[in-house]
Amino acid sequence: MRQLQSLLVFLAAILTFARASSDYHEQLVLRPLQPSLLLASFNFQSNTTWASFEQQNFRYFPRSLGQILQHANTRELHLRFSLGQWDAENWGARPWKGAREGGTGVELWAWVEAETDEEADGRWLTLTNALSGLFCASLNFIDSTRTTRPVLSFQPSGYHTNSTASKLHLLHGTLPREVVCTENLTPFLKLLPCKGKAGISSLLDGHKLFDASWQSMSLDVTPICRSGSEDCQLQITQTTDMVLDIQRSKRPRDNPIPRPIPSEELKCDTSKPYNSFDTCYPLDISAQEEEWSLSQIFGHTMKGSCPLAENESYPVCINVPHARDIYTSGAREHKDESGYMRCFELTPQEDFEMILPPQDLSERAPLEQPLLYAERSFIGYGQERGGVQAILTNPSPTDAVDFVYMESLPWFMKLYLHTLKAKINGNSEDVIQEMYYRPALDRKRGTQLEVRILIPANSTVVLTYDFEKAILRYTEYPPDANRGFDIAPAVITIGNVSIRTTSLLLPLPTPDFSMPYNVIILTSTIMALAFGSIFNLLVRRFVAADEAEKWDVRALRLIIKGAISRFARRFMKKTTKKD
Amino acid sequence: MKLDILFQLPVALALLASMPVAAEHTSNWAVLVSTSRFWFNYRHLANVLSLYRTVKRLGIPDSQIILMLPDDMACNPRNAFPGTVYSNADRAVDLYGDNIEVDYRGYEVTVENFIRLLTDRVGEEMPRSKRLLTDDRSNILVYMTGHGGNEFLKFQDAEEISAFDLADAFEQMWEKKRYHEILFMIDTCQANTMYSKFYSPNIIATGSSEIDQSSYSHHADNDVGVAVIDRYTYYNLDFLETHVREPSSKKTLGDLFDSYDEAKIHSHPGIRWDLFPGGEQGGRDRLLMDFFGNVQNVEVNSVVNDTEWKEDLLALGKKIAELRERAEADEAAERNVSTAEPLLKNHSSQRIRAAKVEIDGKWWEKKAIGAWTLAGCSLVWLAATYMES
To answer: Which InterPro entries does the entry link to (chain A) (predicted)?
Structure first.
């Protein structure tokens, strides 16, 4: 009994310690985009001390994830689930400078502590399988053919001591074909301290998130240390970013199919002359700010603030000019000095609603220009060969951009490195600074290519290379082979900013899958014909038609007689020899 | 104390063994498998998801449900209702909802993975959520749906599982003591042929249609654009929703099977009793909740004295302390070993890395050298031929 008591006292001591050192923050930032879109960025962040993580004292850090990280000796983890395409020309720079998004599908990279490469591979296998169970995604398909070890592109974002840093192995894997759906959001929400029941996470709903024009869910675990102290912490950051179409989100969930507006609800331009009353010039409302509210966009109002986010004063912020009218349900408003950002202090345990009425506004919150525009597509034709072209534009009129372009291609897309060409504004010039390459091995590993390029100000680089398509074995084709094979997006790293191109769909030569049966049937027929005719030639004796009549029982009798006499003669010879 | 427990154990075991065959299940599991890919097979995913919602409603937790979905219907670009799957044109219940855990999805749904799941022949890296962790006291509901034929069921339109494979998998499960009782349900064309080869005990099997009979879809939703549920599953669900409303329900398997109306289902559902102890009568009396719910009878052992649990707790505490000491000793030993080792390993710490490609700016120079070498060689050769002649 006394032991139990002492244990309890010890536990209580740890708990107070943990409470003093762990904290949790959450924030939602809304930003209207053109035309009629809304970017919603959810950010959830909590810290735990390294000591309490090692002792498995979990408070805000999810236990399920913590145990996986400890089991797989993972020191830093980055997991991404993304869908859709970011339209940089209209939407500007990416949220979080692109650091919290992945390529289409699932992307995972981690720093694993291990003595050797083989040990690192083993732990990576453990990690991907465990995460596949936790996040209901096929992460176990990240095998050796989809794993790369980038040299230039990824740098650890956390702090690692020199002794561990020498043992860290960076492993990176992508699944461009993976679907992202509600079963991935469910475990994502369960990792949050408020579990989607209160606070900004109560707005996260699969029905809206997976209807977005672009969305990205991210999970990062990084160790952070204050400089010059041993006081290290482990930080877990979960973000969700989505670009919602306001018109589309406002449709009722049970009747989402767009139907024509009834004539009495049409808004007509009354300044135009009308000949009859059943005609209507629709009023141009694109200049007007869209009308929306939180409950219309996300399906319901926000269920109070999360009580665990103690120090959080501003859980909801919106990036609009101060002139924009916003009505809220009793939240206190704080406007900042820049003129474009305001935040709301919520009353706890009360639902929060925010309504933006239609309004004519002359100014808009400025868009941040991206450092680089990137697009990538297939060139060439035919079933045997192809090419890839990446167009990279530096929009800045003054600054050059130094970046790393990384491709990880599947083994069946065989890259010819000698065809890699970079043209700048149409002329071939030396823009490639550095290049790292690891060729593919059939069925064992994919191609890895990293190119460091320097683009001068206001110019465009076109990077092209050719490849050959491999022919797969019959059993290597997926059930929907005719759909094509997804090629992972290229990752472009500019310092701490990253950009990902869209994924590509590669059509491979696919057989007609009933072909083996055709072949079996045809081969059997030919074999039967050949065997039949050869057998005929061997056992039948061919004679002319007029000879055929003589060919009767008498002939048979003669043959038998001849055979008997031959046998008798031989027998006689033998007996004479014996004598 | 410890010795005391050890002494009591055989007595308790002997008591258990001598009890009449009151062997009951102590856990419930469900394996729900859809085997069809592609959008036009929406109804097969809706079938399996409606069963998923039913067993979840009746109490089986997500950790004890293995759900296999070979394609993505909810977030499919063709779906006008994103994040949603409906099994009825009235669209009253969203089967995908806000809380769903899919264990095997997409290309993971294969015959191999299904048989590995049943027989638990998986790698050590396989997470627990993807394993069927049953024992000889587990009741399992196995529900399958897809496109099939005489003694086979297609997986993803690319491979098949035969009735023999399935029967052998169940036999292995029985040999490995991985189930107590199984209720096998299948909704596909010629479904009854799929269970005809079973030979392991304690299985009740039912299917939607006889040999040479098709199973049909029930109805289509015009806004979804495809059929949303199959007839056999529809009428099973209908019964489960109207008659089995809460986990305390006393409806039996007999009640469910009697509700099958061939005129409505448009095929002849079959039931196989002969593998079940007690035959048809024994099977008919089993509660539906033994398979669709998570209700177990509790056996209460009489409490001998009040201080016993405290003593047990103390013994447990001692055991934990002992184990902890041992673990610490092991760790210390490991540390001693590991301090000696790195000296040896330092030499072979070469990393797998991409090779740096040298970009050569001097190619013109090299070409000139090459040309000179070639010219020199040909000069030597010419000179030699001249001398010889």
So the answer is: PIG-T
Residues of chain A with C-beta less than 8 angstroms from the C-beta of B80: 256-257
Please name the residue that has the structure tokens 């669709």. B292
**Distance from C-alpha of A176 to C-alpha of B10, rounded to nearest angstrom:** 57
CA B76 to chain A, closest CA, distance in angstroms equals 9
pLDDT of residue B338: 56
* Amino acid sitting at position A317: C
> Is the bond preceding residue A35 a cis peptide, omega within 30 degrees?
yes
Residue B78: the pLDDT is: 92
> Which structural domains are found in chain A, ordered by start?
25-253+265-360 (no CATH), 373-506 (2.60.40.740), 517-578 (no CATH)
Residue A106 structure tokens: 């699932």
In this structure, are residues A112 and A123 in contact, taking their beta carbons and an 8 Å threshold? yes
Alpha helices by DSSP H, B58-200:
111-119, 163-175
**Residue range B321-362, pLDDT digits in tens:** 999 999 999 988 887 765 544 444 444 445 777 888 876 667
Please compute the mean of the pLDDT values over residues A416-442 and round it to a whole number: 90
- The DSSP bridge pattern shows strands A491-494 and A447-455 to be unpaired
Q: Indicate which residue of B25, B44, B180, B189 is catalytic.
A: B189
Active site residue B377: no
Cross-chain CB nearest to B355 (options A130, A186, A437): A437
Q: Please state, in angstroms and rounded to a whole number, the distance separating the CA atoms of residues B118 and B116.
A: 6
Topology (CATH) of B25-292? Rossmann fold (3.40.50)
Question: Pick from A130, A235, A137, A248: which is nearest to A184 by CA?
Answer: A137
Question: What is the spatial distance between Cα A218 and Cα A321, in angstroms, rounded to a whole number?
Answer: 29
The rounded distance, in Å, linking the Cα atoms of B135 and B128 is: 15
Q: Which residue of A134, A177, A192, A207 to mutate against B (max B Cβ within 10 Å)?
A: A207
pLDDT tens per residue, range A492-530: 999 889 999 999 999 998 888 888 888 999 999 999 999
Q: Do B357 and A417 touch (CB under 8 A)?
A: yes
Chosen from B37, B52, B105, B111 to mutate, greatest number of chain A CBs within 10 A: B105
Helices (H), chain B: 2-18, 42-57, 111-119, 163-175, 231-243, 253-258, 262-265, 279-284, 289-292, 308-340, 342-345, 363-388
Local confidence band at A232 (pLDDT 50, 70, 90 cut-offs): confident
Listed residue (A86, A47, A517, A512) closest to A311, CA to CA: A47
Residue A358 backbone phi and psi in degrees, to 5: -65, 145
The Cα of A105 is separated from the nearest Cα of chain B by a number of Å equal to 13
The answer to whether the Cβ–Cβ distance between A256 and B158 falls below 8 Å is no
- Decide if B63 touches A, using CB distance below 8 A: no
ipTM reported for the complex surpasses 0.90: no
Q: Encoding tokens for residue B115?
A: 């048989």
Confidence of residue A460 (pLDDT cuts 50, 70, 90): very high
> What DSSP line would sit under A150-216, residue for residue?
-SSS----S---HHHHTTEEEEEEEETT----HHHHHHHHHTSTTTTTSGGGGG--HHHHTTSSEEE
Within 10 Å of residue A534's Cβ, how many Cβ atoms?
Answer: 10
Residue A14 pLDDT: 38
The tokens for A555 are 């002939």
Residues 6+ apart with CB under 8 A from A129: A139, A140, B123, B125, B126, B127
Closest CA relative to residue B284, chosen from B275, B299, B269, B273 = B273
For residue B189, indicate whether it is catalytic: yes
List the one residue out of A63, A62, A60, A98 whose CA is nearest residue A82: A98
This prediction has a pTM of: 0.83
- Min mean pLDDT across A170-179, A233-242, B144-153, B332-341 is at B332-341
% of chain A at pLDDT higher than 70 = 92
Query: By percentage, how much of chain B surpasses pLDDT 70?
Result: 87
